[in-house]
């Protein structure tokens, strides 16, 4: 998952867990992804990605090998990466703790060998761990917070607040983004290093395959070993509520993953850390809102 959005849509989904809340350090992996240390019983501290674009916690192949895990019988599921889908095994993880939370013994998905956040990263935390909390991503001070519902952390300059919607059954964080003045439905994916929009969104903003300024590129194979060709172009006005982003070069392509997400027939976007990575923001899952520090 060096460039691609790290979306995980299991057929069977775990429910969010409850527990004590706290804060701890965030880091960037060798591939630039947001990661943090978790404690796994019998295996000590391990680095995991923190991924709002994963509906369930998952392990990379080298992480499973290091821990000596074997597949759970009859627990296969289908995952959807940016370029396509693939059937994978699931594994019972020893007890996991993060930021004061005891997540228990999770049934986790096994990413294929092609998926990596860096050799040092063993897996990713998904909605089954994050979804009961107000999850603070402080990418200015590099801190992760899991806060109880209603316990909004203080902000010196205050917060800009926008409503979010949780995608039915999957729980992905959906919100409205404006792109050169045009509204676009977006999924916030902290496991994605690049923002992708479909061609419906690009056309709504006045960009067609024949427009000037388009560049072509190829996405390396990611979670599902599928490569994908796409375009890039600079957009001048990008916003979420009252928050305005600097002009940025964004990716355009009708990624196969837009289909199972139900975002292939209208303007849609996967919002990654190329836009959000220098911000402090809170994903309030229980309160269904996103707060961005001013």
Structure characterization notes:
There is one protein chain. Helix content is 7%, strand content 41%. The chain is mainly β. Strands 16, 17, 18, 19, 20, 21, 22, 23, 24 and 25 form a 10-stranded mixed beta sheet that branches. Strands 2, 3, 4, 5, 8, 9, 10, 11 and 12 form a 9-stranded mixed beta sheet that branches. Strands 1-14-13-26-27-15 form a 6-stranded antiparallel beta sheet, with no helix packed on it. The longest helix is centred in the N-terminal third of the chain and has 7 residues, at 61-67. A hairpin with an 8-residue loop joins β20 (215-219) and β21 (228-235). Mean pLDDT is 90; it is low at 1-6 and 10-20. It has helices at 61-67, 127-130, 199-204, 273-276; strands at residues 22-25, 27-28, 34-40, 44-50, 58-59, 77-81, 84-88, 90-92, 96-98, 101-104, 107-110, 121-125, 134-138, 143-147, 159-163, 165-166, 173-179, 182-188, 196-197, 215-219, 228-235, 238-240, 243-245, 248-252, 268-271, 280-284, 289-293. InterPro entries: Peptidase_A2_cat, Peptidase_aspartic_dom_sf, Retropepsin-like_bacterial. Residues 50-129 form the Peptidase A2 domain. This is Aspartyl protease family protein. GO terms for molecular function: aspartic-type endopeptidase activity. Residues 1-21 form the signal peptide.
Write the layout of secondary structure elements.
Blueprint: E1 22-25, E2 27-28, E3 34-40, E4 44-50, E5 58-59, H1 61-67, E6 77-81, E7 84-88, E8 90-92, E9 96-98, E10 101-104, E11 107-110, E12 121-125, H2 127-130, E13 134-138, E14 143-147, E15 159-163, E16 165-166, E17 173-179, E18 182-188, E19 196-197, H3 199-204, E20 215-219, E21 228-235, E22 238-240, E23 243-245, E24 248-252, E25 268-271, H4 273-276, E26 280-284, E27 289-293
Parallel strand pairs: 4-12, 5-11, 18-25, 19-24
Antiparallel strand pairs: 1-14, 2-3, 3-4, 3-9, 5-12, 6-7, 8-11, 9-10, 13-14, 13-26, 15-27, 16-17, 17-18, 17-22, 19-25, 20-21, 21-24, 22-23, 26-27
């Amino acid at each position: 998952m060096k460039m691609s959005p790290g979306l995980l849509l299991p057929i069977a989904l775990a429910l969010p867990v409850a527990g004590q809340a706290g804060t701890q350090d965030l880091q960037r992996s060798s591939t630039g992804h947001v990661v943090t240390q978790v404690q796994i019983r019998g295996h000590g501290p391990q680095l995991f990605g923190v991924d709002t674009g994963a509906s369930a916690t998952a392990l990379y192949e080298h992480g499973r090998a290091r821990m000596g895990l074997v597949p759970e019988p009859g627990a296969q599921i289908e995952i959807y990466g940016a370029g396509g889908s693939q059937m994978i095994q699931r594994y019972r993880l020893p007890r996991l703790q993060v930021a004061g939370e005891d997540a228990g013994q999770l049934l986790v998905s096994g990413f294929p060998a092609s998926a990596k956040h860096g050799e040092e990263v063993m897996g990713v935390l998904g909605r089954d761990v994050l979804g009961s909390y107000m999850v603070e991503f402080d990418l200015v001070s590099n801190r992760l917070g899991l806060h109880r519902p209603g316990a909004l952390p203080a902000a010196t300059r205050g917060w800009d607040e926008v409503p979010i919607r949780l995608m039915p059954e999957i729980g992905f964080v959906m919100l409205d983004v404006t792109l050169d003045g045009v509204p676009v439905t977006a999924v916030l994916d902290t496991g994605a290093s690049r923002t992708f929009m479909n061609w419906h969104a690009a056309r709504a903003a006045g960009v067609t395959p024949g427009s000037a300024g388009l560049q072509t590129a190829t996405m390396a194979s990611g979670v599902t070993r599928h490569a994908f060709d796409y375009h890039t172009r600079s957009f001048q006005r990008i916003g979420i509520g009252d928050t305005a982003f600097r002009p940025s070069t964004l990716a355009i392509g009708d990624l196969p993953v837009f289909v199972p997400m139900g975002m292939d027939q209208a303007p849609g976007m996967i919002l990654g850390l190329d836009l959000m990575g220098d911000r402090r923001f809170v994903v309030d899952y229980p309160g269904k809102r996103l707060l961005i520090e001013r």
